[in-house]
Amino acid sequence: MQLIDRIFSIQTQTEFDQLALEVYRFQREHVSVYKQFVHLLGKPEPLTVNEIPFLPISFFKTHAIIAEGMQPQIVFKSSGTTGMERSQHLVADKSLYEHSFLPTYAHFIGPLENQLIFALLPNYIEQGESSLVYMVDHLIRATKHELSGFYLNDSESLLNAIEQGRKTGKKLVLFGVSYALLDLADRQVDLSDVQIIETGGMKGRRKEMTKEALHAELKQAFGCDFISSEYGMSELLSQAYSDKNGLFDLPPWMRVQLRDVNDPFSLVGEGKTGGVNVIDLANLYSCAFIATQDLGKITTGQLQLMGRFDQADLRGCNLLVQ
Fold it and tell me: Which ranges constitute the DSSP H helices of 55-172?
């Protein structure tokens, strides 16, 4: 079985560990930026997953990270505020992205044929080259329904589409960037029957707030029992989704570790706050081992996002620490 097929067929922890080390060896040999990074660290060859070095996410701003001899089929760029330098993810095989996000979404949110999907993601569309827009567009088209679609800043059309959607008996899902959902919340509309998936920050449009405060405000305004979140970024080809208690579940080919905030080569255990290291084996032809600027905790095996490092850029998928 090919390496790609094995990645998307992972069922056990042992399989993940074995494949993570295989992907590490492949990238150490064939991704020049990662090869140089590992060489400069001068550490022994990892024998376990916990010993694999993680590339700082900032390298996606300054280097072309792609396997030697491969050309990007598509380039995804990070979101951000005006004038901010954007990260670039050179994706050699965009089918890897589709193989990742389609089953992940279906597993955590539900089968697409039984859904209508509405998207309120104006800034992502305005900036262009968004991995989120690429994903949501595929999800929308997979519903095969004319009401599913992007609604930009047109809240009136969105609310009319939701009202029409209620008559179909299908599950209603709304993807929204945080500030656009807050703008919609100002209208105090009843969306208690809609699964809302919040993604992204304020993009400089509103004051930053913690995820808990954001969700509390949205729940009160829309009458929802809970607000879901999607944890993803341009540098990753996989996503995590939060459940009713706000904790994130990951697909089998994705894992997070937490590093000590003062020592990036030491890991912290469950229940302690640390920097989020992500292993995304779908990133086969770029870098699967990324040290993000997010802070989190592992709680009963699930990821709880706590915010971001103080000096981290304002990014689309996370919130600042108060």
Answer: 59-62, 94-108, 122-127, 131-143, 155-166
pTM of the predicted structure, to 2 decimals: 0.91
Separation CA 154–CA 135 (nearest Å)? 21
Identify the H or E element spanning 147. Answer: none
Name the 3-class secondary structure at 231: strand
In tens, the pLDDT along 92-150 reads 999 999 999 999 999 999 999 999 999 998 867 767 789 999 999 999 999 999 999 99
Q: What is the DSSP letter of 293?
A: E
Q: How far is CA 169 from CA 71, 112, 206, 231, 283, in A?
A: 44, 14, 35, 28, 37
Q: Record the tokens describing residue 321, joined without a space.
A: 């620490």
**CATH of the structural domain 96-246, one choice from 3.40.50.12780, 3.50.50.60, 3.30.450.40, 3.40.50.2000:** 3.40.50.12780
Domain residue limits, the chain: 96-246
Listed in order, strand segments (DSSP E) in 144-268 are 149-150, 171-176, 194-198, 228-231, 240-242, 248-249, 254-259
Q: Torsion angle of alpha carbons 159, 164, 168, 170, nearest 10°? A: -10
Distance from C-alpha of 144 to C-alpha of 123, rounded to nearest angstrom: 25
pLDDT greater than 60 at residue 284: yes
